[in-house]
Amino acid sequence: MRKKIVAGNWKMNKNLDEAKALVSEVVNMVRDEITGEVDVVLCPPAVYLTTLRQYIPTEVRMALGAQNCHEKESGAYTGEVSALMLKSIGVQYVILGHSERRQHFGETNAQLAEKVNRVLEYFMYPIFCCGESLDQRENGDYVGFVKSQLTESLFHLSPEQFSKVVIAYEPIWAIGTGLTASAGQAQDMHFELRQHIASKYGDEIAQDTTILYGGSANEKNAADLFAQPDVDGGLIGGASLKSREFTNIVKARQ
Ligand code: 3PY
Fold this sequence. Notes:
By secondary structure, this protein is of the alpha/beta class. It has helices at about 15-35, 50-55, 85-90, 100-105, 110-120, 135-140, 140-155, 160, 185-200, 205-210, 220-225, 245-254; strands at about 5-10, 40-45, 60-65, 95, 125-130, 165-170, 210-215, 235. The site of 3-hydroxypyruvic acid (3PY) has 12 residues, from β8.
């Protein structure tokens, strides 16, 4: 059985007091209202991770994730955060290759392959983001493009390593635009990605791989998206900044 996950990507939002308030609200709502088997992951800005960890009681099914890490082990990389540092403060998941990082920071598939390696070396779970632009969807082989992101950043992994990876399909045209892929569009791509994984790692691993949908998912469209057989949860942007809405999305997944 693959894991169901709802992860909140806070991006570069909130001051410390707001972050503490948000995490406390989500903890209370999840503790009181979520009874099903769903892992909740909160991915605040890196500077808040250590503090926010103290706000998450061990009995609540919630983990912390980072939004990025550097691909090198350590060294003269001013301003960067390593996988070892994240592990040492209790982080369990690391989002890698979000389209905003690919677009604004020039992250490449080869560089992401190294980041994936570091995250796995420190026994954390990569949430590997992939997705096509609007131009690619309208004019190109967008399925082939997204598959190649997986091939180039993940397919060097052993089956055992790959089984720790969470995939997040996030069509770029649906990020920060208010546009969402329809449930059918999401299902089609998730199905294609699962087939692609099966072609490399076999059916069993493909069936066990958690594939999240991201891109303007919210409390209104979550139930439809999660009803699709290959959509195992969500990587939630703006809606994760509102405790009630985020909890409703988790409820829709449980
Ligand atoms: C969004 O929903 O906008 C996201 O980018 C989630 O990562």
